[in-house]
Amino acid sequence: MKKIFSIILVFALSLLHAQSVKSPSSALEVNFKLVNNGQPSYTVNYNGKPVIVESALGIKLKDKTALNANFEIQSSKADTFNESWKPVLGQKASIVNHYNELTIALVQKETNVKMNIVFKVYDEGVAFRYEFPKQEKLNYFIISDEETHFNLTEDYKAFWIPGDFDTNEYPYNETKLSEIDNAKLDKNTGIGMTTDLGKSRVQAPLMMKSPSGLYVNIFEAAVVNYPVMHLDVDVTNYKLTSHLVPNAIGDKAYLQAACVSPWRTIMISKDARDIVGSQMILNLNEPCKLDDVSYIKPMKYVGIWWEMHVGISTWDYAGSQNAQNLSSQDLIPTGKHGATTANTKKYIDFAAKNGFDGVLVEGWNVGWEDWAGNWKEEVFDFTTPYPDFNLAEVTAYAKEKNVKMIMHHETSGSVANYERHLDRAFDLMKKYDYPAVKSGYVGKIIPRGEFHDGQTMVNHFNFVARRAADYKVMLNSHESSRPTGYSRTYPNYIAAEAARGNEFNAWSNGNPPSHETILPFTRQLGGPMDYTPGIFEIKMSFYDKNKKEQVHTTLAKQLALYVTMYSPLQMAADLPESYEKRMDAFQFIKDVALDWDDTKILEAEPGDYLTIARKTKGKETWFLGAITDENARKTEIALDFLTKGQKYKAIIYEDAKDADWKNNPMVYKIRTVEVTNKSKLNLVLAPGGGTAVSFEPIK
Predict the structure, then answer these.
(1) How far is Cα 615 from Cα 643, in angstroms, rounded to an integer?
(2) Which of 1, 158, 334, 409 has its CA 20 to 30 A from that of 17?
(3) Known catalytic residue: 286?
(4) How far apart are the C-alpha atoms of 408 and 315, rounded to whole Å?
(5) What is the pLDDT of residues 538-580, one digit of tens each?
(6) Superfamily name with CATH number, domain 300-592
(7) Active-site residue, from 169, 503, 537, 549
(8) 634-643 pLDDT per residue, tens
C-alpha cells in the first residue's frame, strides 16, 4: 500500500506543478510548470515541436522581494472564449476573438504574495500576463525588473531596431539574432540614441523567421499604466529577456493591487500572412469604453507639412531671432512662414475640389522660433496664432468649402506644459470646429529624465486620448510610444506615427525600399499608422538642385501604400501642384477607401514583398496594393476574393517598363481591364516599386 500511495502522491504533485492549454485548432500548446524550487516557467510548442523552450517568468520588486521563485500553485482554471465584435473603424467589419485560457493562481510561501499568470492561446499565437489580486499586506509596490524570458531554439533571422527608450524612428536591420550588435550601428541611420542603449537590446515588436521557415513575432498588448517592454538578446543562446523602460530615478513601474501587467505576445505561423493579418493585439485590449462614437470618422487630408520638410517654407514665423522674448505682435516675419491664412486657403481649395475631408496646418501657433532641442519648460500655449494666421477667417472659409481643419499640437517634449494647457487647447478646437488633432513629441521629455517609452509617458499618451474623447476629438500622435491596441478601447485614438515615417526621405538617408514591407509585420500590429504616403516628386533635387535625398520608392508604390499601410486617417502628403501635374495617378488617392468590410492578405514576406486586397465598408468596391523591396518582382494574383458572378472594372496603376526607385522612379502607366472572381492579374513590380488597383463593380 505504501508503494501505491507514493505513486498516487507523485502523480498528484505533477498535476499541481504542470498545466497545459492548447489553441482552438490544437496547433499551439503552452505548458506551464514550477521548476527550481517553485520558479514559474513555460514552454510553447507549434505542431508538436518546441518554439519556446523552458523560459522563466517572474517579477522583482524594489524592496528586494523576488516574485520569481518559491511559489506554490494554489489553483488553476481553464476556460474557452469565442466572440465577434465590430470595431468603430477597422480592417474588417467584424473581428473574431477566439482563444482558450488557462489561469494559474500562485502564492509565494514565505511572503504569502499572490500572483496569477494568465495564458490566452489563439490559433495565431500565445499571450500571457501577470495579475496581482488584492493582497493581505503588499498592495502598493514598485517594480524594479520583470523577469520574462523567451528562449528560442534556433538562430532566427530578425528584423529589428535598436532598443532606444526615446525614439523608434529607425530603419530596420535584417540580421541573425547572433549578429545583433547596436555598437556597430551607423549612427546616421537613426536619431536620438540614448546613452543607456544596450549592445544587444532591441525594440518590440521583434519579427523573426527561423531557418526552417517558421515565423515568430514577439510583442505586447494593452500597455496601460506600465512602461514599454524592450528585449535584451543573448546572441549566443538565442534567449530574449524583457527590459522595461525606467523612469527618471531608475524605477520601472508603480502599481497598486488589484492590477495587471500588459500582455506578452508570441505570434507563430508557417505562413507570414497570418502575422500581418492577425487581430490578436486588438483582441487583447478592453472593449470600447465610449458611449458616443458618432464623431469618429475616417479622414483623408492634405496639409501644410511637406513643404517645410523640403525647405520651401518654415514652421517658424520670425526665423532665428530671439523671438521668445517678444510678443506675437512684435515678431518680424522672415517671409518663409508656411502657415499663413492665404496659403491655408490654397490647401482648402485643393481639398474641396478633390473631395478630401480635411486640411492639417503645422506652424500656425507662436513658439516655433525656439522649440527644438532647447529642453525648455514652456514653448507653446496651443492657443495663440501667429499674426499671419487668422483662425476665425480660416475656419469660416473651410466651412464654406465643406472642409474640416485638423489641429496641430507640437509639445517639444514638454509634457507637463501640454497637460497644463490641454483643456484650453481642446476648448479652442471645439470653438473653431476642429474634429481631430495631430500631436507631436519631438525632443527630450519634460519632466526631465523621463523617456518616451516609460510609464509616465505611456500614461500621458493614454490620458490625452481619454481627455480628447471627453471633447469628442480624434487623436493622431507622433513621436509617441508605439501603439499596442489601445484604439480598441478608445477608438478616437484614430492613428499614430511611432515609427520612421515618410518624412525621413526628405532630409536624411531615408527609408530603404524594404522599409514598408517590414512595418506591417512590426509597428502596424499595434494599430493604424499615419505614414503620410503619396509623395509624387520623388527626388528632392526638384526643390533644390543641390539636394541628393529622395524617396526610396517608385511613384506607383506610393499609391500602393494607401492599401498596404492601414490607417483610417490618410494624408496625401505632397504639395497640391505635384498632384495637379499628374491627376491621372492622383485619381487613385482620391478613390481609395479608408474603412473596410474585409481585408485579404494575399502574399507576404517580411523585408521582401506584400500584397493586400481590401473591400470598402458598405460597398462592393475593392482596392489592392502590392509592394516590393529593392528587387523587381513578377507575381500572379488570383482574384477569387471578388464577389462571385459580379463583373468589375479593374483600374491598374503600375510601374512603367523602365521604372526603378533609384534611377527612374516617377514613370508609371495606367490600364483598365474587365475581371471577375475567376480572373488572374499578372503584376510586374519594378525595383522599389508597387502596383495599386481599384475594382469597381460593373452594373
Answers:
(1) 10
(2) 1
(3) no
(4) 12
(5) 999 999 999 999 999 999 999 999 999 999 999 999 999 999 9
(6) Aldolase class I (3.20.20.70)
(7) 503
(8) 999 999 999 9
